Amino acid sequence: MQFSAQEDIEVPIDTVFTMVSDFERFERMALRRGIDVRRVSGSALPQAGTTWETEFKIRGKPRQITVEMTEFERPSLMRFQSSSKGMNGDTVVELLALSQRRTRFLVETSMGAKTLPARLLLQSLKLGQSRFRRQFQTRLSEFARELEERHLHGV
């Protein structure tokens, strides 16, 4: 299953990249949402090879996912590989400078199943694919507006 979303942001590309690669902030946000996140390798600075272990519940069942940043090219690209017992995924965050003050923010994700239960989970996601894609785009749009606000107010 593949899906993507993009937003144009009124923020310079270097600033967007710095905000999007603030992993400590994302780790704190995940913890506040009940997701256990542990950085198991990598330094405080963003770099390829940084790995996280996460644990959370989906449909009442605990899930563990390992996420590794496989590419990190400032200021335009980050790629993450994720794997769990039954699934694997690939997420690409790409930034494109449209002008000195405007950036295109693109997120592409693909997921694949390795086991029958994971295939069933993916199949249920595919059934609600249009709703899922809308939610993904809405969340990216909200995140983009938050980045603009943070840039505008110097946060």
Overview of the molecule:
It is a single chain. This protein is α+β, with helices and mostly antiparallel strands and 155 residues long. The protein is 35% helix and 41% strand. It has helices at residues 13-20, 23-32, 116-127, 129-152; strands spanning 2-9, 36-41, 51-58, 61-73, 77-83, 87-97, 103-113. A 7-stranded antiparallel β-sheet has the order 1-7-6-5-4-3-2. The mean pLDDT is 91.
Major sheet: 7 strands, antiparallel
General shape: globular
Radius of gyration: 16 Å
Strand content: 35-45%
Mean residue pLDDT: 91
How far apart the termini lie comes to 36 Å
Helical stretch tally: 4
Order of helices and strands: EHHEEEEEEHH
Number of strands: 7
Instruction: Give unreliable regions as ranges.
Output: none
Structural class by secondary-structure content: alpha+beta
**Helicity, as a percent range:** 25-40%
Placed side by side, the strands forming the largest sheet appear as 1-7-6-5-4-3-2
